[in-house]
Amino acid sequence: MTATSAFSASGDPVELNAELDDEPIGFATAQIHAGVEPDAGFGARIPPIYLSAGFVFDDFDHARDRFAGDADGYTYSRIGNPTTAAVERRLAALEGGAEAIVVGSGQAALSVALLGILQAGDHVVSASSIYEGTRGLLRDNLGRLGIEVSFVTDAHDPNAWRRAIRPTTRVVFGEPIPNPKNDLLDIRAVAAVAHEAGIPFIVDNTLGTPYLLRPIEFGADIVVHSASKFLAGHGAALGGVIVDAGRFDWSARPDAFPHLNSPQRALRGTSYVEAFGPSAYAVYAREVVASRFGPTLSPFNAFLLQQGLETLSLRVAQHSSNALAVAAWLQVQPEVASVDYSGLASSPYRRLAETYLPRGQGSVFSFTLVGGEAEARAFYDELRLFSRMTHLGDVRSLVLHPASTTHTLLSEDERLAAGIGQGLLRLSIGIEDADDLIRDLARGLAAVRALVARTQPEALAG
Ligand SMILES: *Cc1c(COP(=O)(O)O)cnc(C)c1O
To answer: Most buried residue, 378, 397, 414, 453, by CB count within 10 Å?
Structure first.
């Protein structure tokens, strides 16, 4: 499948600049051209970085009309900014959504996406394998606000999700490529469970990126990303995005989403649903949640994000092919007990990978050394090319020991149930030469062999 056919197969029109508006375009074209209008001022080809807190009004009436929403244009950068708006249009096009809202980080995107729907007394269903920061947000932060959450442990069974739904459930939230175990989610099946219950399905597509996976095509209603990872891609800037598919029917259960269905003073007595139809959620999330809680993305970071997006397909293809080469090599090393990568024929998630990730299975995976913490430490400290970091989706290769870092808040039992032992290491494979990465990992495995020879000479005898 080529990039072009996969992208235009969705049938969704891509918002381009006016000259190209009617032509179907491929993903690689869209990542460079979508959403950008030549600058009205000096004709700059790249949207300028509008580092300005506010925008002047022509006169008294113009100010009044802007505030009333009767005049186009910008007022204050927390509400909207031209640099930011250009990258939002591009992200909406790449994900096949109706509208995108960028914010200061991935955690900000998750907070805004969820607070645009939930209130005290509501309930969320998610999986225990999701990103630890999101697990904490749902359990601790939203928990304090009176919002409850259930984490499904058997995320592969759609009935487990179905059983967790309550009359008060208002969101189903999932990650298609959970990290570090790569235990892929059948997102079409989970979307069906959410829709049976009349509630939206939110997907964190950080590890997939729209190049590998476009969750909206498989039933997601809202897609969020940590743009700090692959979208910006160079490990320099944090950012987040919420993409609304614009097709969830918020009016079907008015009692479930009262903030979108009841009359609002700010809307002169109409409701968000009456005023904005299928865009009700996106308008509410932007104007009431993001702009009030205030996690604004700097226009400078919006520019870095836009630069990153222009090479997304090239980088993610290289990330994926490098990851597959490294995973296949690790799998046959005697010091390695197992490799969790859905691109390998041995992975139990291979079939889901064929359905959802035909262009590549991404860059982030884990493997487990024979042994435990001592072996992990020997391996980790010996690497020279891999950076020891908690981050992912960087052009550089990164390595992390989850049991002693990101997953320390889990009990030993929870960690083992999640398959995260002391010998497990997570890799985020960059876009360097695969041979160089393998040479560095071989250096780490040699350190493990030396450790075993020193401490357990009998283990090597057989
Ligand atoms: C990194 C990450 C986040 C949080 O994003 P930040 O930009 O660090 O706030 C959320 N979800 C996933 C899957 C991530 O990898």
So the answer is: 397
pLDDT at 409: 84
Task: Tell me the per-residue pLDDT of 420-431, one tens digit each, with 9 for 90 and over.
Answer: 999 999 999 999
- Which three-class secondary structure string do you get for 387-415? EECCCCCCCCCEEECHHHCCCCCCCHHHH
Number of domains forming the structure of the chain? 1
254 touches 107 (CB < 8 A): no
Q: Tell whether 421 is covered by a domain.
A: yes
Exposure on the CB side of residue 453, measured as CA atoms within 13 A: 6
**Strands 364-369, 424-428: parallel, antiparallel or unpaired by DSSP?**
antiparallel
Alpha carbon distance 251, 280 (integer Å): 10
Distance CA 379, CA 427 (A): 12
pLDDT, residue 4, reads 30
Instruction: For residue 198, count other CB atoms closer than 10 A to its CB.
Output: 14
- How far, in Å, from the CA of 155 to the mean position of ligand 1? 20
Residue 402: give its domain's CATH number. Answer: 3.90.1150.10
Ligand 1 midpoint to CA 242 (Å)? 13
Domain for residue 143, yes or no? no
The whole domain housing 355 covers 313-461
Please, are residues 299 and 77 in contact by the beta-carbon 8 Å criterion? yes
Top mutation candidate among 110, 126, 131, 175 for ligand 1, by most atoms within 8 Å of CB:
131
* Residue appearing with tokens 């960690």: 415
What does the pLDDT look like over 342-352, one tens digit per residue? 999 999 999 99
Token digits of residue 444: 């780490």
